[in-house]
Amino acid sequence: MTLEQAVNQVQQETGGKVLSASTVRRGRNAFEHRIKVLTPSGHVRVVTVNTEAGRAPASSDSTKNPAGDGEGIKEKH
């Protein structure tokens, strides 16, 4: 599944506005798409979609207050 397909799917499922979308590596050959959505109720939700074939998309990882979305925090590996 491409990032664009994941964004479209999440947008349809939540009915919200996509704020950001990115792809992150999970292991050697595994990737996941993380889509941040502003829901109609005003909450920011981060939805993770696995790119591996045969796996169902994960539902929301977290629900955050729109004012405190943690945008500036980055992990170093």
Helix/strand-derived category reads alpha+beta
Mean pLDDT: 78
Q: How much of the residues is beta strand, in percent?
A: 35-45%
The tally of strands reads 4
Which stretches are poorly predicted, pLDDT < 50 over at least 5 residues?
Answer: 63-77
Give the biggest beta sheet. Answer: 4 strands, antiparallel
Could you walk me through the main structural features you see in this protein, from its secondary elements to its overall organization?
By secondary structure, the protein is α+β, with helices and mostly antiparallel strands. Helices cover 16% and strands 38% of the residues. It contains one helix and four strands; from the N terminus they run H-E-E-E-E. The chain has one helix spanning 3-14, and strands spanning 17-25, 31-38, 44-50, 60-64. The chain has a four-stranded antiparallel β-sheet with strand order 1-2-3-4, with helices on one face. Strand 1 (17-25) and strand 2 form a beta hairpin. The longest helix is centred in the N-terminal third of the chain and has 12 residues, at 3-14. The radius of gyration is 13 Å and the shape is elongated. The termini are far apart. Residues 63-77 have low confidence and may be disordered.
